[in-house]
């Protein structure tokens, strides 16, 4: 029990201490909770907008087939121009309906309301057509819906006979309920089959759902599209059933719906996708014979003046009759958009969150940006693929927000941390190394471990000879001026050879190579720098003599070995990036021996061993063994070597080959 508690505490500490782990995890949990609740505000304003884009992309990738057995007869602008404004007389409508039936259609759906009685002879003519074709004809029926209002009277017999007879899982039904029906007058309604055409757009005004049944009184009335599909299949009303929260049965077919009895309309395209013929051409006999043979024909208005346009994912001007024809095509073709189960939506969010956490482990911001772009693409592409080729609608907004928000935080945090590290590196190293090295360290911060570490470096000590006597014999202003001139010139040389300037100790310069950046040739760089320093000092000496100033001279000691390098000092007060260890001390003591041997540059045997490449060619550099010396802090004597240039122009540009001269003496 104690170990489990300890593990939990460590996990909690790890989460809190790592925002790139903690925050994306919290975001994943938040979007998982939103997935479970699925607030209507998000679902109907954002998710549905993304659904519209999925429809459009699907039609670019794999356009759905347009049914050839469904046809529309539309009262369009041509029809109104030829036969007058809408509504037409019912005698003319009866003639249009009769001409369609002469073509031998399988079923006809009339998307036109007849809420009031017309002239008796006209109603009689239309009623006669309805009577003759009642087995193949479905007519639209209007219902009025208002929240909080319901019909409590006795349902008319004609509606009772056409209501859905079988209801299962009644407790899961949350269907739309009407309080009034606009039933046609007796002659028209007594022999007709009806289907409601009530629609309810989403909050953005777009119509994406078909309400397959509407509750009126205690009965459930099918929609016009559902009735048209049933009639086309030749099925009786008894073949229809409702399974609350699951779907509608139509023979052996289950039509998927939500708990409100709504079917997601699988639009095939914009207006005009389903074939249509003008009612004017039908009435004038201007259609080819057999056009309606075995077709399912929808009759309705499409002219703008008839005000029956619907706003859909593809168009803002789709006629209501084409929407109804589309739903019937979905049912007969079993071509449905199926909402994925809730656990699939939740799994999509969790997998997206896991992807964010995995990508967040990348060290470089560029890699993270590329990773999150790929993650967003993966979420969108997989979701679109399921929609396009499997007709499955998986929630997109929450997985997408999981990746976008988690990725944005991780990248922002990474940039902020990198910027902070860059400022820290620049603050710490700008006085030690060149700007180029600082930029390289910022690009590769792992090269500048700000903690201590053991590394092999080459350290250089340079000290002015007899500086104490010089400073005592000259005015302070003159001492400082010459010292600044000397130190400035030597610093330029150290930086030229990519050295790290450790510190100034009075007149002494301490520099090293091999840290913070890796430098495999650190010993060679230090030696070349020392030769360049001597040459630069000789130039300064000539200038001082010419100006009648005192002439300064310096000795340089170089040693190579393993040291501790890192930030040393008081945390939060003063920290210095420096090197410590025996090999540092040895370098200082070797520099002090330059007075004894009257030379400018001395190196140790440890540095010489690292100069293999430098010694492999003939050059104008002499490296001469002197002797073994005992130095404080070392039990064994150390071999020392004198390094000097054999030419007067042995500057940085000329020291390119070396010839070993002499051998160590005991």
Description:
The strands form 7 sheets. Strands 21, 22, 23, 24, 25, 26, 27, 28 and 29 form a 9-stranded mixed β-sheet that branches. This protein has 21 helices and 29 strands. With 666 residues, it is α/β, with parallel strands linked by helices. The protein has 3 domains: 23-58 and 344-417, no CATH class; 70-334, no CATH class; 447-660, Nucleotide cyclase, GGDEF domain (Alpha-Beta Plaits), CATH 3.30.70.1230. α12 (342-359) runs parallel beside α14 (397-429).
The coarse silhouette is rod-shaped
Q: How many domains, as an integer?
A: 3
Largest sheet: 9 strands, mixed
Which range best describes the helical content: under 10%, 10-25%, 25-40%, 40-55%, 55-70% or over 70%? Answer: 40-55%
Class derived from helix and strand content = alpha/beta
Report Rg.
45 Å
- Strand segment count: 29
- What is the percentage of strand-forming residues? 15-25%
Which whole number gives the mean pLDDT?
85
List keywords for this structure.
single chain, 666 residues, alpha/beta, Alpha-Beta Plaits, 3 domains, 7-stranded mixed β-sheet, 43% helix, rod-shaped
Topology readout:
Layout: H1 2-17, H2 19-37, H3 40-61, E1 70-75, H4 77-83, H5 90-102, E2 107-110, H6 120-132, E3 137-144, H7 157-162, E4 166-168, E5 177-178, E6 180-182, H8 186-189, E7 193-196, E8 209-211, E9 213-216, E10 219-222, H9 224-233, E11 240-243, E12 247-250, E13 253-256, E14 262-264, E15 276-278, H10 279-284, E16 296-301, E17 309-310, E18 318-319, H11 320-332, E19 338-339, H12 342-359, H13 365-390, E20 392-393, H14 397-429, H15 435-443, E21 453-464, H16 467-472, H17 476-496, E22 500-505, E23 508-513, H18 522-546, E24 554-570, E25 574-580, H19 582-592, E26 601-604, H20 605-609, H21 612-615, E27 621-629, E28 638-645, E29 659-660
Parallel strand pairs: 1-15, 1-16, 2-3, 2-16, 3-7, 4-11, 5-9, 19-20, 24-26, 27-29
Antiparallel strand pairs: 3-6, 8-14, 9-10, 11-12, 12-13, 17-18, 21-23, 21-24, 22-23, 24-25, 26-28, 27-28
Helix pairs in contact: 2-12, 2-14, 3-13, 5-6, 9-11, 12-13, 12-14, 13-14, 14-15, 17-18
